[in-house]
Design brief:
Elements: H1 5-14, H2 21-36, E1 40-47, E2 50-57, E3 68-69, H3 74-82, E4 86-88, E5 113-121, E6 124-133, H4 144-170, H5 176-181, H6 196-209, E7 215-218, H7 225-234, E8 243-247, H8 253-261, H9 278-281, E9 286-290, H10 297-309, E10 311-312, E11 321-322, E12 326-331, H11 335-340, H12 346-352, E13 355-358, H13 368-384, E14 388-391, H14 393-401, H15 407-425, E15 430-433, H16 453-458, H17 462-466, H18 470-488, H19 493-500, H20 504-513
Parallel strand pairs: 7-12, 7-13, 8-9, 9-12, 14-15
Antiparallel strand pairs: 1-2, 1-6, 2-3, 4-5, 5-6, 10-11
């Protein structure tokens, strides 16, 4: 590293600069590439026995969505347990976690150089840095002491960012005693994605989590409303207490009151003992009412009383019980329209929606689809006992242009099914999910019901498109979107361009190429 003085100096200076974590990590990997002339590198954070990528270079973007459990990845386990630099032999038989995940290099990585840097802070593992090169002798010129310098600087960079993040989470809202009890608990619920709308969603969650305000989570089926509720609870002052879940849509009206408020022995036929309801079970914690729009009107009035006064009566009991329960509710209905139609109480709606949070559909989350696809592919790999699994770049491109009417749930099911199909058709333990492995019917949602008209018009039948070439599939998608936007805007090209967020001139040229004009 005779000529590396400037690069190492810049790495050290970055620790003192007020740059974002993302910029700091990107500059770190850029410097690593210059120093080692490596083909791929990754910076990962370690938590709960798994490594999560924070920044990558030379790897497929889906890697950012993957979570590598050390029990499933022997190389990462070796790095985690070593406590020092790990040089893997060029012909190591240990599976590489990035097999199939380096662009233009499908399947198992052959003989190559690989070094793992465990990143330590106060003698505790906080992450890892990995570098790979196709040249088996690429890193032989570097001594272990030189590599330890890089490891120390990378560890300092990661530790600085984690410390800043922790301090931001602690400012003025959490008692010191609680901070020391379980520092990782508030971040244990992970939401995959770094798009602008996801950043805004996470900011809203953070803003309201440490209050006792009621939160109404809205969004289409399959967007992850339950995960938002779990994140709200995990980041709240109530996170040491219980989060109780109740699906209102699956609640028979005959037992709904008992489920919510409990009952005493003899209150009705079959009530052979006292039973606490969900409100009591969630006392001092959080009660998540999923699909709250499905509650019958008769029960809405009783729910309103508990929200107003904090007391309830078990079925068959004359006594009132005080509870301190935070309510987080979720619905895929437009409750304000339900209020107008007389199907939902307006006073209850306003009590529930003190702080509304809207979860965006997957089609508005740009490249989060890539990260989520990688996340689900890694989960499928572990469930099916596959050595490694990757997604063909053509499939990724079509994923980016598909409407995903079933949202995250549809994507998860699609990847899981494709993994099962691919495994059944392959003799290798290294699986690449190809177009023909995906069977998705966009005309039916995940509940088996017909989608609404908007989704039927906007969705593209992925089964057909995936069996075409990428150009044909993309053209079909663009033509479908142009037709829909043109019709929805009363045949006004300028308005259609605004809806599609493209330049009017480009829209006209695209329409001509697709023979729409």
């Amino acid at each position: 590293m005779k000529n590396a003085h400037d690069e190492l100096t810049q790495l050290a200076l970055d620790l003192t600069l007020g740059v974002s974590s993302g910029d700091r990590f990107r500059r770190l990997l850029a410097t690593i590439r210059q120093l080692f002339n490596c083909d791929a590198s990754a910076l990962l954070v370690f938590k709960e026995q798994q490594f999560s990528p924070l920044a990558i270079d030379g790897l497929a973007e889906e890697v950012l969505g993957r979570r590598f459990s050390i029990e499933d990845h022997p190389r990462l386990e070796a790095i985690a347990r070593a406590g020092d630099i790990v040089r893997f032999p060029a012909d190591s038989q240990l599976a590489d976690p990035y097999d199939g995940l380096i662009p233009n290099h499908e399947g198992e990585l052959q003989v190559h150089s690989c070094i793992g840097f465990p990143l330590l802070a106060n003698d505790r593992l906080i992450g890892a840095l990995t570098i790979d090169a196709f040249d088996p002798s690429a890193f032989e010129a570097f001594t272990n002491n030189e590599l330890r310098i890089i490891s120390a600087l990378a560890a300092a960079s990661l530790y600085t960012s984690l410390l800043i993040q922790k301090l931001e989470n602690q400012i003025g809202v959490i008692p010191q005693s609680q901070l020391l009890s379980n520092p990782d608990k508030k971040n244990s619920i992970e939401m995959i994605g770094n798009s602008a709308v996801m950043t805004e969603l996470q900011a809203q969650i953070k803003a309201v989590a440490n209050t006792d305000l009621s939160v109404l989570i809205t969004g289409e089926t399959g967007v992850g409303k339950e995960l938002v509720a779990a994140s709200l609870h995990a980041q709240s002052l109530r996170n040491e207490q219980t989060l109780v879940y109740l699906n209102c849509a699956a609640l028979p009206e005959s037992v709904a009151e008992s489920e919510l408020f409990g009952h005493v022995k003899g209150a009705f036929t079959g009530a052979i003992s006292h039973r606490r309801g969900k409100f009591e079970l969630a006392d001092n914690g959080t009660l998540f009412l999923d699909e709250v729009g499905e509650l019958p009107l008769s029960l809405q009035a009783k729910l309103l009383r508990v929200l107003q006064y904090g007391d309830l009566q078990r079925v068959g009991d004359d006594r009132s019980l005080k509870v301190n329960t935070r309510i987080v509710a979720a619905t895929n209905r437009a409750l304000h329209e339900e209020v107008k139609a007389g199907r939902f109480r307006g006073d209850l709606y306003h009590r529930l929606s003190v702080f509304p949070i809207h979860v965006p559909p997957l089609r508005e989350r740009a490249k989060d689809v890539i990260l989520l696809a990688g996340f689900f592919a890694e989960k499928s790999k572990n469930k099916l006992g596959i050595s490694n699994i990757s997604i063909d770049p053509e499939v990724i491109q079509i994923f980016l242009h598909y409407a995903w009417p079933g949202n995250i749930r549809e994507l998860e099911h699609a990847v899981n099914r494709a993994a099962v199909i691919a495994k059944s058709q392959s003799q290798s333990s290294y699986i690449v999910l190809q177009a023909e492995h995906f069977i998705i019917n966009s005309q039916v949602d995940n509940d088996g019901e017909q989608n609404n008209e908007e989704h039927q018009n906007s969705a593209v039948h992925l089964r057909i498109n995936l069996r075409q070439g990428l150009r044909e599939a993309t053209d079909a998608l663009q033509l479908s979107m142009l037709k829909q936007a043109y019709q929805e805007n009363n045949h006004n090209w300028a308005a259609a361009a605004r809806q599609l967020q493209i330049d009017t001139g480009n829209l006209h040229r695209l329409a001509k190429r697709l023979k729409l004009k």
